[in-house]
Amino acid sequence: MIKVFLADNQPVVRYGVKSFFEGHSEIKISDTASNFEEVTSTLPKKNFDILVIDLELEGLASINYIKSLIKDYPKVKFIIYTNLSEQMFAPNALKTGVSAYVHKNAELQALESAILKVNEGEIVYSDLVKKNLALITKQRKNERLYRKLSTREIEVLRYLSEGRKNKEIAKTLNLNEKTISTYKLRLLTKLHVTNLVDLVNKAKTLDIV
User: Fold this and answer.
1) Domain range 2-131, CATH architecture
2) How confident is the model at residue 62 (pLDDT cuts 50, 70, 90)?
3) Average pLDDT along the chain
4) Where in the numbering of this chain does the Response regulatory domain appear (predicted)?
5) Domain 141-205, CATH number (from 1.20.120.530, 3.10.20.280, 2.40.30.260, 1.10.10.10)
6) Which of 35-39, 51-55, 112-116, 171-175 comes out lowest in average pLDDT?
7) What pLDDT shows up at residue 143?
């Protein structure tokens, strides 16, 4: 039996996923968490095969936190299950070592399939992501600039798009406020805009956030 640990903010998601796998012959939702603190406190106490986690989980300020967990718990496979843009976040998530990226728009059968495949050692991501990764090398430099944003730049852009101020973002990511300003300037340059409003609009147009 594949023991799965599900971490998601929403009670309805936790309930729905757990109900879907109730009585499953191969998969069991062994435990759930509603925030990142619960994840870090539960992992050392119990044995899981797979952690299914939302990138928007409360307390999960940076995907680097997941990277650290992957290092600390090498026997656990990680699956991202989120509403965040697959096009933008999946490639960077996979770079951290996660085994799969499943968008919440997909049917629960897609999550089921990912769990089964990941348990067998496969790396799972959609045809859309595969296609986008393949297209990167074929595009002209100015067409793929936004795809070269670093993981940290994407995180800062996400928080800027939510209307957060530099000081608040700095506190969330445990960084200096001046560092956030530097990331903001890099984003303006890379996306060829001159102000925050245009930056956010450009990000939405390109489906970055």
Assistant:
1) 3-Layer(aba) Sandwich (3.40)
2) confident
3) 87
4) 3-119
5) 1.10.10.10
6) 171-175
7) 46
